[in-house]
Write a structure and sequence with these properties.
The protein has 82 residues and is mostly helical. It has one domain. The chain is 78% helix and 0% strand. It is built from 3 helices and no strands.
Length: 82
């Protein structure tokens, strides 16, 4: 079984790597801020995809068959998180 990483875990790893790079003098303060913002935006997109995928899988499992629940999952995400 594949061990997947959550968006939060991914962000925490990237945040740590960027902080270490800054402390080692490889990034300026502004570069650090820009890179952290990029990582945060990417983590949010990853989280949205993970939630939508999980919702769609739950719909498919509940129905006992594979269905295209992407539209329903997107609607669920938008109503719940946006």
């Amino acid at each position: 079984m594949e061990n997947k990483q959550t968006a939060v875990e991914w962000f925490a790893t990237k945040d740590t790597e960027l902080t270490i790079s800054f402390l080692e003098g490889n990034l300026s303060q502004i570069e650090l801020a820009i890179e952290k913002l990029k990582c945060l935006q990417q983590a949010k997109a990853m989280e949205k995809k993970q939630i939508i995928d999980a919702y769609a899988q739950g719909i498919a499992d509940e129905a006992g068959e594979i269905i295209d629940a992407t539209k329903d999952a997107e609607q669920y995400y938008n109503e719940t998180y946006e």
